[in-house]
Amino acid sequence: MSRRPILAGNWKMHHTHLDAIQVVQKLSYQVDPKTYDDVDVVVCPTFTALRSVQTTLEADRIPIQLGAQDVHWEEHGAFTGEVSPTMLEKLNVAYVIVGHSERRELFGETDDNVNKKVQAVLAHGMTPILCVGETLDEREAGQTQAKVTGQVRAGLAGVKAEVAATVVLAYEPIWAIGTGKNATSEDANETIGQIRAEVREMFGAGTASEIRIQYGGSVKPGNIGELMEMPEIDGALVGGASLDPDDFARIIRYRD
Description:
By secondary structure, the chain is of the alpha/beta class.
C-alpha cells in the first residue's frame, strides 16, 4: 500500500508571531503548489503564533496544514498555562504533537498523560503525531525495540483500530534530536518496521498498512532523500531545519 508522505516542522520555542508569518510566506514562495498534491506539509508554531499562522495560511491560500506542539487533555479548567483541545480545534489546527521526548524528559510527561492527550486530540477531530524514542543509554543497552513499542502500546491504549489508522507516529531517537547525529536510514527503517509490527499486533494488518510513521532526529535537506527511500518511512518530523524556510522548502521538495 502506498501511504501519503507527511512532513511536519516542529518549531519548538522559536519564532515570534511576526517571524512565523514571514517564514510561512517565504516557504510558500519556494514550493510549487502542485507539490502539495503528493505530500502533506505541516508547520507547528508556538502557541502565541498559532492564530497568526492560521490567518496567513487561510488568507493566502497556502496549502500547508497547521499543527500545535502540545495540548492538555481537559476541555477547560483551572490548569494555568495550558491549552485545551477545544481551543486548538477552533483555530483549525489539523495536527497536534503528543508525547515529544522533550515533554517526557524535561517536563515529566508520563505514558498515561500521553494517552489522555491522544484520546482528546482524536475526540476533537484532529490528528495526533505521537512521538516515541529511546535514549542513548537505552540504545546501547539493546532496549530500543522494547522502549519504542512500549510507548506505542501505551500511547494508543483504548483507541479503536479504524481510528488508530489515522494517527501519525513519529520515531525520534532522543540521542539524535538537535545533536547533529542521526540514525542511518537503514537503522531508522528497521526500528520503524518494529513499530509497524507492534501496530499490526495491536490492531491488525489493515491498520498497520495504513498508519503513517515518520522519522525525526536531525533531519536535513542532505539526508531527507535517503530517508524517504526507505519502505517503512512515511515522512519526517523536522526540528531545526524547519525553522529556515530555505531548508524546509528543500526538504519538502525532496523528490526534485
